[in-house]
Design a protein that fits this description.
- 34% of the residues lie in helices and 28% in strands.
- The protein is built from 11 helices and 14 strands.
- It has a 6-stranded mixed beta sheet with strand order 6-7-8-3-9-10, sandwiched between helices.
- The longest helix is centred in the middle third of the chain and has 17 residues, at 166-182.
- The protein is globular.
């Protein structure tokens, strides 16, 4: 079932072509949206929300025409904006409950859903505090909560880990993955960090200069390679030396030894070497391609923070 469809979608600003005849067909899932700063990611999200009129072309979300049926559509969509937009003089409970009512929930249901949602994002104990005292991580969780509180069918998340430290990023990505897998909500995640897309998403969309560059499943993009990754409990250097003695080319990557698998005989060599050296074999698996490999030819600095169209 096609959830999002755009046909020849074009948006021109005064001197910038933000989207240039973009054709998309996306099915439900957790979808990563990537591209250079100014590629048109945020513009696309705003058009899909019905907040920005295109110059030409068409767009549908869940069968709704985003231009003619925007108000009806938005009750089924949650949006987490990139910028800091929270009213600091109210509590998270007040704000999220207000957003739930705007999305169509009755007052009592909105309060109940707010408590459940703030518990889910880890803010239940802090829910009555004014948001002026919240950390960046807590504010990001409030923004996620208001996008989730009305139980949408689709969530559009624009740079949800902005400003977070590594631990905060991990927690946010875990929440997003849970929402997509356990709640069955389709998520479009816009991020400039390929590692985030690779960890969370099952489909990737790349936009460049407002045009579609690729649309593919993460399984296809990160297919297994012919390289075996070996992790042992013990001295990996000893194992590397033993394998080289038997004519095996070995590279080191952190705690892993990487070897090229040409045939199944290599597996026997690895097994016998590990046993002879009395090492523990922790992991032996085929390496997978990384998203970074697909983007190595992109201009330097593309993944840096900056303004977006």
């Amino acid at each position: 079932m096609t959830l999002i469809r755009t046909i020849s979608l074009t948006k021109r600003f005064a001197r910038v072509m933000a989207l240039d005849g973009l054709d998309l067909e996306l099915e439900p899932g957790i979808i990563g949206l990537v591209g250079a700063n100014g590629a048109g990611k945020s513009t696309l999200i705003k058009i899909l929300l019905g907040l920005l009129q295109p110059t030409s072309g068409s767009a549908e979300v869940m069968g709704f025409d985003v231009f003619r049926q925007g108000p009806e559509l938005r009750q089924f969509v949650g949006y987490m904006p990139e910028h800091d937009c929270l009213p600091t003089e109210v509590s998270a409970t007040e704000f999220v409950a207000h957003m739930a009512q705007i999305s169509g929930l009755p007052r009592a249901a909105a309060r109940e859903r707010t408590a459940e949602t703030l518990r889910h994002v880890g803010l239940f104990e802090e829910r009555y505090r004014e948001m002026r005292g919240y950390s960046t991580g807590m504010k990001q969780r409030v923004k996620l909560a208001q996008a989730l509180v009305h139980d949408p069918r689709l969530m559009l998340l624009d740079e949800p880990t902005n400003g977070l430290d590594p631990e905060g990023r991990d927690e946010m990505l875990h929440l997003i993955r849970r929402i997509g897998t356990e709640f069955g909500i389709t998520i479009v995640l816009s991020s400039h960090l390929l590692s985030e897309i690779e960890r969370v998403c099952d489909h990737l969309i790349e936009i460049e200069d407002g045009r579609l560059v690729r649309s593919a499943s993460m399984t296809a993009l990160t297919a297994p390679t012919s390289v075996l990754a070996i992790e042992v409990d013990g001295d990996a250097g000893q194992l590397a030396d033993r394998l080289r003695e038997q004519g095996v080319a070995v590279n080191r990557s952190g705690r892993f030894l990487l070897v090229q698998k040409e045939d199944d005989a290599l597996l026997d060599i690895i097994r016998d070497s590990v046993v002879d050296l009395e090492l523990g074999l922790v992991r032996l698996e085929q390496s997978r391609r990384r998203l970074e490999e697909l983007f190595q030819s992109l201009p330097a600095g593309e993944e840096q923070e900056g303004s977006r169209v």
